[in-house]
Design goal:
alpha/beta, Rossmann fold, Dihydrodipicolinate Reductase, domain 2, six-stranded parallel beta sheet, six-stranded mixed beta sheet, 10 helices, 31% helix, globular
Length: 344
Amino acid sequence: MGFKVAVVGATGNVGREMLDILAERAFPADEVVALASRRSQGTDVSFGDKTLKAKALDTYDFSDVDICLMSAGGDASREWSPRIAAQGAVVIDNSSAWRYDADVPLVVPEVNGDAVRDFRKKNIIANPNCSTAQLVVALKPLHDHATIKRVVVSTYQSVSGAGKEGMDELDRQTKALYSLQNVEEKKFPKRIAFNVIPHIDVFMEDGFTKEEWKMMAETKKILDPRIKLTATCVRVPVFIGHSEAVNVEFEKPITADEARDILRSAPGVLVVDKREPGGYITPHEAAGEDATYVSRIREDATVENGIAFWCVSDNLRKGAALNTIQIAEALINRHLIEPKRQAA
């Protein structure tokens, strides 16, 4: 007998992607339920060759739900995840609400998949920030080989990371510029069309933004607390796909050829690295794909044992929906949960 899965936030960008990926991967679910806020109740969402009608989260009974994929934002997760978990469902949350809780594992299956075993403390597992997820997938095999000391990363993050409103704003502003109309700024603090904005999330006292802090804190929790990381996070006028320019300093010597070979055999990574025009991956090619792509691998002579590379991934998939479902698969594959109906 299969599992019963609830997707909370099913009408949003990531929630819809979760439903698509559940169907694509033939997830072992006998029943999938789409849930959303009351204002989205009744909205049609696709699930494989079926159409589901979104039900209201605040009136739903989770007593027979096995796995809840939560993508409704931090405030909703803080309110609802403990309630849902108390009814016996394992909550896998895509927001930042639980990532820094010591009793909640923060998991990227290719990196620290065994951490899912700690879910029972709160019945909640956290999904990392989209920019962190792709980064640690690329860093993990290199860290295992040569031990990372320090990482400097600059991100080029698509507007879909800000949700449907971000995508709508880029679309609206682009059309306005082409038709010589006034450009309105609503979602972003400055114009995003034909521009870049070095500001994602709120500013903190030290001058970093919360998005940059997330990358620092989450990399330490997922990969190794000894790693030093500094980030500059930038919003760019791309609809889907986050890119990162990464410079890594290692404790042990490592050549570009060694790094390339290591990454080619790493889970979740695809290397596309030809030193010629077009011999690399851009967000356009990564959109709709599951892999974390690595290109432009080269030695950084400005530090001892340095490597630089370019990293691209679909932020709605590996950065959010796919990673969430891979966590659910890790629970099942490790025989850590079984369907309630079967247990009954």
